Amino acid sequence: MIVQAQNLQVDVVLREIMDKVRVVTTSRNELIDITVQIQAVVSCSEVQSGIVVVYSPHTTGAITVNENADPDVQRDMSSFMEELVPCKSSFRHMEGNSDSHIKGSLFNFNQTFIIENGQIQLGIWQGIYFAEFDGPRTREVWVKVL
After folding, report:
1. From its phi and psi, is residue 7 left (phi > 0), alpha (psi between -120 and 50) or beta?
2. Would you list the domain boundaries of the chain?
3. DSSP 3-state helix, strand, coil percentages of the chain (rounded to 5)?
4. When comparing pLDDT for 35 and 6, which is higher?
């Protein structure tokens, strides 16, 4: 694509990729730091300035951002979510995992991040997490770099 603006001609190369990251969870509720894996996809894309969308195609797993310096934050988040939405038999969903669906919706299934100089722009203490609410399972996280 060629873009012209006030007699300036610039060749624009649009790069985009789609990839999947495999996540193996080991307990019913947990947060797994996937920052390194997502950055690896961004690095392979060679996109220097753009966005990356991180998406969970699962209704009982979500994507979130939180502190990655102290693992107690993830444990506190998991404990709080278990207290906020307990697994109880009064839910009507036949599979017995209604709490997992509710938690996924509360967290959200995708997050979008800015890429600059080939790096995901996160705060100094931030990490990208897959939030598991119905494990243990093997999951996929879809990553689209634009």
Report:
1. left
2. 16-145
3. 25, 40, 35
4. 35
Distance separating alpha carbons of residues 52 and 113, to the nearest angstrom: 5
**Can you name the residues that pair with 119 across neighbouring β-strands?**
116
**pLDDT-based confidence at 73, cuts 50/70/90?**
very high
Q: Could you tell me which of 127, 19, 136, 114 has the C-alpha nearest to residue 63?
A: 127
CA 42 – CA 143 distance, rounded (Å): 9
CB distance 130 to 55 below 8 Å: no
Domain 16-145's class? Answer: mainly beta
For 46-68, write each residue's pLDDT tens digit: 999 999 999 999 999 999 999 99
Rg (CA), the chain: 18
Q: Which of 93, 114, 113, 117 is nearest to 104 (CA)?
A: 93
Cβ-contact 145, 39 below 8 angstroms:
no
Residue given tokens 């920052």 in the structure block: 35
